[in-house]
Write a structure and sequence with these properties.
This protein is an alpha/beta fold and 238 residues long. The protein has 8 helices and 9 strands. The chain has a single domain, classed as Spore Coat Polysaccharide Biosynthesis Protein SpsA, Chain A, CATH 3.90.550.10. Helices cover 42% and strands 20% of the residues. The protein is globular and about 50 Å long.
């Protein structure tokens, strides 16, 4: 199996408006870095034209792989992407490019010293643009539930701008039981418990606003936090 320095992993759910622009921007940013890389697009059960766009891009560029999942699942989609990635380092990006790609080189540079690298919207709020209600909910979720209940030392668990060593990614995602969209949060919790070296750094971030109802937030994120706290407290093999 051919190896790469880097895999860019894009989880695409109903991203027909963003996907092609994202891929072309990624290529533009990475090309000067002289890295051997691939792009893996996991189309995550979309109901729009996302997978057709992904297939078109994979036909145009030989280093792009496009796969389809029948049902949306944040954890399963990322797990699938890591399982087929061939890069020593795997970088996750939000397809809408909420995080400014000016930070991409820094993201990759940090992987030379750290096992997991994550962008943060809380280390320098002056370069972050988001609505006040989403900012408040994010503060409560990160401080009360993840830092409070789960004893995380990180400030931001939801920024999709990350890079991780592939073998660590596979190890930790194979331990995650939640198949919803809490997996990337749990990944950071488990990485800390394993003692991996984690770097959190400030990023310029702009919200592409998508309304999520309070009940969906509760089911998707709060219930899994409580379940994970119980498992980590009472099950010693977790």
């Amino acid at each position: 199996m051919e190896g790469y320095d880097l895999t860019i992993l894009l989880i695409a759910y109903n991203e027909e408006s963003f996907l092609e622009n994202c891929v072309r921007k990624v290529i533009q940013v990475i090309t000067p870095l002289a890295l051997k890389y691939e792009i893996v697009i996991v189309e995550n059960g979309s109901t729009d034209n996302t997978f057709n766009i992904a297939k078109k891009l994979s036909n145009e560029f030989p280093f792009i792989v496009a796969v389809h999942l029948d049902r949306p699942s944040g954890t399963n989609a990322i797990r699938k992407g890591y399982s087929i990635a061939r890069g020593n380092i795997v970088a996750n990006l939000d397809v809408d490019l909420s995080t400014d790609m000016c930070h991409f080189k820094e993201l990759i540079e940090h992987t030379k010293q750290y096992d997991v690298v994550a962008g943060s919207r809380f280390l320098d709020p002056s370069i972050v643009k988001r609505t006040s209600d989403r900012h408040f909910l994010s503060i409560v979720y990160n401080r009360v539930f993840l830092r409070g209940l789960l004893r995380s030392k990180l400030k931001d668990h939801g920024c999709g701008f990350r890079a991780v060593k592939r073998e660590i990614a596979n190890e930790l995602y194979n331990q995650i039981k939640d198949n919803g969209f809490f997996g990337p949060n749990e990944f950071l919790i488990r990485a800390q418990r394993k003692g991996y070296r984690i770097k959190e750094f400030p990023v310029k971030w702009k919200e592409n606003y998508r309304r999520v109802g309070p009940w969906r937030i509760f089911v998707t994120y709060i219930i899994p936090v409580i379940k994970l706290r119980i498992n980590l407290t009472f099950k010693k093999d977790q």
